């Protein structure tokens, strides 16, 4: 288990604050953000709240249109009805708590911009190179769906370090623990489970499997977290790329994922365990979190 000490410093701040209101506004999309793709849905499921889960009743296909290779022009997206979080980064910090170590995180042009510093290697000295925004959410029950548009200028430079996008964790003393979605140098996705439940650990998408992560273009990342009941200690996690399933970290296999009543969500990028090149640049936009249904890319 990789214990994520990065989450410890801001916990006191989170404990003091009330649950922030979500920014689920009809005008949530920044008017200055032009559509970097074609502006049309290349698939069949444009409803942001329903009908895009290829693993349920919708048997059709859903394709994320080419969103372009300009980090300064992000895709457009809608907010699902009843979203817990719907963030287009046009309202300042908007109830989020920034946290960083050997990195910067700012809003630039209506997008979240993360730069991590080069020259940090935990094999030489302790330290991370990561920055994230975090926000309280209602306690995790049985399902949670995350969507973000992400642009990486490069993939991690060493197979020993993983770049983290999303984190779910519980900050309660009696129920502390979390999980996080990562990317590896070879484009594969990984799931770091530090929930402290039996069977926890680190596992990854099989080498060579597709779809996987890309650098140099906008990617629609969806993260799906499920368990059978709100009291189950294990569940499963899926990651989708541009609407297609990349990998399912399944409780039915040796990749059982520990679950807690997660009450905090983080989004950002960087390396909890930097090894080798630790410099990176990431752009993030159109973050949405829902407990109702898969959100979709648009």
Automatic annotation (TrEMBL):
Compositionally biased intervals (Low complexity): 49-61
Domain of life: Bacteria
Signal peptide bounds: 1-23
Gene3D superfamilies, sorted: 2.60.120.200
Entry keywords, A to Z: Signal
Spans annotated as Disordered: 24-69
Name of the protein this chain belongs to: Lipoprotein
Natural source organism: Pyxidicoccus parkwayensis
Taxonomic lineage from the root: Bacteria, Pseudomonadati, Myxococcota, Myxococcia, Myxococcales
